[in-house]
Amino acid sequence: MTDEEKQKKIEDFIERGNLYNLALDYINSLNRRKTMKLNFQVNTQKAAEMTQSYKPIPAGEYDVKVKFAEIVETKSGKPAVKVCFVVDGPTHKGRTIYDWFVDPENNEISANRLSALCVACDITENLTDENLSKLEGKIFSAYIKINKKDTSRNTIGRFKKSEEKDDDLPF
User: What pTM did the predictor assign?
Assistant: First the structure.
């Protein structure tokens, strides 16, 4: 028997062994399904709340926190900064809003909006892919509005610094 024939026999043996193990795993999974029991209680109130949470929040002024910011590529191949914002209050706490600043180096509107976000977050240095994470965790005030092109979504219309609160003052 040649080395090639030996190699082929070994490969066949391994393949049959893998098929056997695969079949055995499948049979075992079927047996587990037969013995599994399900007792799931439907929570209609939570289901209704979840359905509501997908609707856009009403336009207005909200405290917002940057959850993350990352550089992505749009479908058309342009660079963009994608930012995830989380509403911090006074209402709709925990709701998320995503915004894209498409090609801010060449698009004046995106550049102005991204600059406004940075200023609201007290970031005055140039924003790069290395320091983009400086936005994360920053809290600011935003005017959230309903997206004109897609009324099922929100977008941020204005960014501004949060009002300073001096809770330690005695008066």
Answer: 0.65
